[in-house]
Structures are given as structure tokens and as C-alpha cells.
UniProtKB/TrEMBL annotation:
It comes from the Eukaryota. One of its GO terms (molecular function) is kinesin binding. Residues 1-72 form the PH domain. GO terms for biological process: Golgi organization; lysosome localization; regulation of protein localization. It comes from Panagrolaimus davidi. PROSITE patterns: PH_DOMAIN. This is PH domain-containing protein. InterPro entries: PH-like_dom_sf, PH_domain, PH_domain-containing_M2. GO terms for cellular component: endosome membrane.
Length: 202
């Protein structure tokens, strides 16, 4: 994601863009004025884009390299992001603590989910991984990974009671072995153990 913040505190974003959906190319550009070390992001339509001026050549090349990696890396298995989770009767909010959260209480909103757009909620747990899988009307999913099975059970209860969303336990006697449950279970079995920072063995 590319964010445009209102000021240097980077607390409030005016706009945001998903680079994979919007940007096709990134590269260095030469301007007719005296400005140097400028690179440009060009949209798929080619009619719009962004230009950024850097303080030196090394910084510019670092930006270009990182953006190219972001554009070319498959998003089929996105990285996990540590965050706080808040659930109301209408929304699920994911937030990341600011650098001085203990002092100023600032948390940056990462994502919000409209509960009315959720079509299914499934819980999956292996020996080392505990996950809630949220399915949306758009056929996309969000995965919430928690540390322990007891945390998973509390989250299931919250979805049930507070949100009115029934949660399917993919490994109970009724659902274990079905196609969908098998797919989710196998995906979880291949996930990293985020709490120990090591792959979970097959």
C-alpha cells in the first residue's frame, strides 16, 4: 500500500493506493529542471502517475528496488501483521500500535471489516496454529491467527454472541474430512509457527 499522510507525523492518511492494483511500472525519470534523483510510478492506464524526489541516488535506488519487489512478489501468501483486534456489533477493526502508544494511546487503523458483508467464519487449529478464517461476499478472506486454543475459543464466542455469526469448527466430528475443511487444515499445517518463528512440520 502507498499512503499519503497529512503531515510528517504519519498518523492520518488522506489517500491510499494498492500498488498491485494501480501501478504498472516504476523507474527513474530525468526532468528538465534542476531536480535530481526522481523516480516515477506509472498507472496501468498510463494517464496518471506519481513522481518522488529523493535526497540522493542511493535512496532513490532503494525505493525503486523495494517497490519493484512489492509489485512482483506473489500475494497468495501475505505476511502476517501483528495488530490489535476490536469487534463491535457492526465492524471488526485491526489496528497497529504507534511508536509511543503507551504514552499517547495512538493506534493506526490497518483494516476494517463490515460484519454485514461476512458470509462465513471458520475456525481451524493444528498442533501449533490457531486461526479464524473470515470469508466475504467478494470471495476474499482474512485470517486471524491467535496464540492459544483458549484465545481461539474466546474469539469464536465473541463472533457468535456479539456479531451473531455462527463459527464452523473445521476439525470437529461433523466437519472434519470434508473438502473445505481439508483445504483449510492443510493450509494451516504449512503455516509458520509465528510465536516460535519456525516452520510447522508437516
Amino acid at each position: 500500500m502507498l499512503y499519503q499522510f497529512v503531515d510528517s507525523t504519519c498518523k492520518f492518511a488522506e489517500q491510499k493506493w494498492n500498488l498491485r492494483d494501480f501501478i504498472e511500472t516504476v523507474g527513474e525519470v530525468e526532468l528538465r529542471n534542476d531536480e535530481q534523483h526522481v523516480f516515477q510510478l506509472t498507472s496501468y492506464e498510463g494517464s496518471t502517475g506519481f513522481q518522488f524526489s529523493c535526497s540522493n541516488m542511493e535512496t532513490m535506488r532503494t525505493w525503486i528496488q523495494n517497490i519493484n519487489i512489492s509489485l512482483s512478489t506473489s500475494n497468495s501468501t501475505p505476511d502476517a501483521v501483528p495488530c490489535s483486534l476490536t469487534i463491535s456489533s457492526e465492524w471488526i477493526l485491526f489496528a497497529h500500535e504507534g511508536a509511543n502508544c503507551a504514552i499517547d494511546g495512538f493506534m493506526r487503523l490497518l483494516k476494517k471489516i463490515d460484519i454485514s458483508k461476512i458470509t462465513n467464519v471458520t475456525s481451524v487449529h493444528t498442533e501449533s496454529v490457531n486461526v479464524i478464517v473470515i470469508e466475504h461476499q467478494s470471495n476474499s478472506t482474512d485470517w486471524i491467527v491467535v496464540r492459544t486454543l483458549s484465545e481461539l475459543r474466546r474469539l469464536e464466542t465473541t463472533f457468535n454472541i456479539k456479531c451473531g455469526l455462527p463459527v464452523t469448527d473445521s476439525v470437529d466430528e461433523m466437519h472434519f474430512g470434508r473438502d473445505k475443511s481439508n483445504i483449510l487444515y492443510k493450509q494451516c499445517a504449512k503455516m509458520h509457527d509465528f510465536w516460535r518463528n519456525a516452520p510447522v512440520s508437516d
